[in-house]
Hints:
About 55% of the residues lie in helices and about 5% in strands. The protein is mainly alpha-helical.
Amino acid sequence: MDAKDHLRHYLDEARKVLLWKLDGLSEYDVRRPLTPTGTNLLGLVKHSAGVDAGYFGEVFGRPFPEPMPWMSETAETNADMWATTDESRADLIALYHRVWEHSNATIAALALDAIGQVPWWGADSEVTLHQILIHVTAETNRHAGHADIVRELIDGVAGTRANGVNLPAADREWWSAYHARLEEAAQAAR
């Protein structure tokens, strides 16, 4: 793989993790806010679709062909961070896949040093595809991390893969004892 393929690979892996976090959950669980700021799994997917479409679309003069009203300047604050009752999980996942395909077409079509403009960044808006690949990969991984925590709060599932290979091989009893040990250390540090 060349440098561009490596960068796209890591972005694709983060995208897959983000979508995997929805697997096996109810409509309620993928939508319910589990932090004081309302972070929820389906909202993270919706937001990531908008981010991907903007950075690999508009920035490089290759706009995503479907409307995303929740990303407009006139949209309600945080409209991209949750799914309305009219927006189904299936529709938002399918949208994310279409955005993903469009973004990867932009990545394939342009050189890493291709210049784009990020209008929402203001004065420092000139960027390269290389910068945007790193930026969007970092943001997607950040949201995959949010999704990991939210999913763990829902049903205890954690990690970057369905089989959890990036976590210690331990049963619930071990994790419970580990959690208690950390709580004890935190209490002692007060």
